[in-house]
């Protein structure tokens, strides 16, 4: 029985430790700031600044510089004077063999604020407002700005001092500004602006701009001069070592709490209700991975995953699981009681499998707290389902009830249930319609999407693909989308009432 399987997992020490860990609130989720980019930038700047209250000195900043330098490729050390990492500097940054001086570390630094009387030099790189003034909005500010100097012994035995203007562009949810236009892309403008700043600050001699593009999955920026790093890199090589150092030394308790809370914040799924935000989990501490894998391998987890998300589970799991009606309520309660932990388990297992991570993120990125099941009643008062159904299944039954009452083709079905009026998830991102021909490749038809025209049905994506979910239309085999956020589903339920179709919570 599934209840016995649950008990077996509950007594596992790995489950007990991790469940308590991921149920604990941090100041970030208490304030609703789990994925606020500005707050993340502020924390990172605090940790990297030796003059701040953490008492960790230069260690975090030096570890960060080592991480950045180590992630450069050969192309970043050659001819272009604006590119980072001249060979003479890179070894010193990696090894830490230098003396460090910090001039400035701050967040939200406007680019034009660094002009020092040479604003006209930035005319092509900083956008302007309607009034003609240089813009200081988020597309024209450095998320983190540092001005550093390092001194080391040069080849002739004398000390050399290099100025390092350093920029971190931090992206959690938002995309790079104007990435579709290479000349106007945000990182390209920033790279060019750094070329001007280099000449203003260092007069071009012994000055090396450093540029970092920080994202959840090490996204490649438009400008190759930016070094792509992930939050997992930052956790593994900077934050976790800082936490270990803080625990081992007589560092203030406040610093230990801050570091522990931030680490937990990176791995805990966000409670933000915006379901389209894909990066719910940013990074997981390496020491937790083995324990998370033990939970993933447990039958209770896999049975719960299948019971909650059967379509995705069939693509993710290595075995078939059956759902029984009398256990469904137990499965839902069990999943909801462990939602944060189970999402982390899922992400951890598939984080290095790009294809399956896309599927797993469909589960990870949404809140599953509302798992209400429904009965769909057609215009004649007949129930379309005996067993309570999920939102996605109920949506299919609504459309099926309409098709059975009316003689419809694909165009009429689209007219009866317009995507624009019902689904903000699809219409504002991917698709113009809720219905597509079953046997034809579906492509992104939302013009503003950069993937417009690309086929999107591989791996079944967000469409039903089985014969049990073919809508009875005169124009042939028709299928519908199956991703329904609560707000969109509520609109669908209200829309269905126009055709005498009612949806009743079970």
Q: Ranges with pLDDT <50 over ≥5 residues?
A: 74-84, 273-277
Proportion of β residues? 5-15%
Helix content: 40-55%
Report the biggest beta sheet as strand number plus sense, adding barrel if it closes.
5 strands, mixed
Derived from helix and strand composition plus strand pairing, the structural class reads alpha+beta
In angstroms, what is the radius of gyration?
Answer: 27 Å
Order of helices and strands: HHHHHHEEEHEEHHHHHHHHEHHHHEEEHE
Q: How many beta strands in the DSSP annotation?
A: 10
Kindly, what is the distance between the CA atoms of the first and last residues, rounded to a whole number of angstroms?
Answer: 24 Å
- Tell me, what's the shape? globular
Largest sheet, spatial ordering of strands: 1-2-3-4-5
How would you state the average pLDDT, rounded?
Answer: 85
Summarize the structure.
The chain is an alpha+beta fold and 506 residues long.
Written description of the protein model:
Residues 74-84 and 273-277 have low confidence and may be disordered. This protein has 20 helices and ten strands. It has 506 residues and is α+β, with helices and mostly antiparallel strands. It has helices spanning 2-10, 13-23, 27-30, 37-48, 59-70, 90-95, 186-202, 231-248, 253-267, 289-296, 299-308, 310-316, 328-337, 339-350, 354-364, 391-405, 410-416, 419-422, 424-427, 486-496; strands spanning 99-110, 141-153, 159-170, 210-215, 227-230, 374-377, 435-437, 471-473, 476-480, 502-505.
């Amino acid at each position: 029985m599934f209840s016995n399987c649950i008990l077996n997992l509950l007594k596992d020490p790995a489950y007990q430790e991790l469940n308590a860990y991921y149920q604990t609130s941090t100041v970030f989720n208490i304030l609703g700031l789990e994925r606020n980019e500005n707050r993340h930038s502020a924390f990172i700047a605090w940790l990297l600044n030796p003059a701040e209250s953490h008492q960790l000195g230069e260690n975090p900043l030096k570890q960060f510089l080592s991480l950045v330098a180590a992630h450069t490729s050969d192309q970043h050390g050659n001819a272009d004077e604006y590119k980072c990492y001249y060979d003479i500097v890179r070894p010193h940054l990696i090894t830490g063999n230098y003396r460090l001086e910090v001039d400035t570390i701050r967040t939200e630094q406007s680019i034009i604020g660094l002009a020092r009387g040479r604003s006209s030099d930035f005319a092509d790189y900083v956008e302007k407002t309607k009034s003609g003034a240089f813009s200081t909005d988020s597309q024209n500010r450095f998320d983190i700005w540092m001005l550093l100097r390092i001194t080391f012994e040069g080849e002739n035995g004398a000390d050399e001092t290099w100025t390092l203007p350093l920029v971190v562009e931090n992206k959690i949810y938002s995309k790079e500004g104007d990435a579709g236009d290479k000349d106007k892309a945000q990182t390209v403008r920033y790279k060019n602006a750094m070329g001007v700043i280099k000449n203003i600050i260092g007069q071009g001699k012994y000055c090396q701009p450093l540029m970092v593009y920080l994202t959840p999955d090490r996204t490649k920026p438009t400008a190759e001069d930016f070094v792509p790093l992930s939050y997992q890199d930052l956790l593994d090589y900077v934050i976790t070592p800082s936490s270990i150092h803080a625990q081992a030394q007589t560092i203030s308790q406040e610093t230990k709490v801050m570091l522990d809370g931030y680490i937990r914040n990176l791995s805990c799924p966000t409670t933000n209700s915006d379901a389209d935000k894909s990066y719910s989990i940013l990074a997981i501490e390496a020491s937790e991975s083995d324990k998370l894998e033990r939970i993933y391998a447990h039958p209770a987890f896999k049975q719960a995953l299948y019971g909650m998300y059967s379509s995705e589970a069939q693509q993710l799991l290595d075995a078939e699981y059956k759902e029984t009606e009398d256990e469904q309520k137990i499965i839902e309660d069990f999943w909801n009681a462990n939602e944060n932990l189970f999402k982390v388990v899922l992400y951890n297992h598939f984080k290095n499998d790009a294809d399956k991570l896309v599927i797993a993120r469909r589960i990870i990125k949404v809140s599953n707290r509302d798992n209400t099941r429904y009965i769909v009643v057609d215009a004649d008062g007949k129930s379309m389902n005996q067993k309570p159904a999920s939102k996605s299944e109920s949506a299919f039954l609504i459309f099926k009830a309409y098709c059975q009452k009316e003689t419809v083709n694909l165009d009429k079905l689209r007219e009866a249930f317009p995507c624009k009026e019902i689904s903000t998830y699809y219409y504002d991102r991917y698709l113009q319609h809720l219905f597509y021909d079953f046997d034809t490749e579906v492509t992104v038809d939302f013009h503003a999407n950069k993937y417009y025209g690309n086929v999107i049905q591989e791996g079944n994506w967000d469409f039903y693909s089985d014969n049990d979910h073919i809508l009875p239309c005169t124009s042939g085999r028709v299928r519908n989308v199956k991703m329904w956020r609560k707000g969109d589903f509520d609109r669908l339920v209200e829309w269905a009432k126009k055709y005498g179709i009612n949806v009743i919570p079970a």
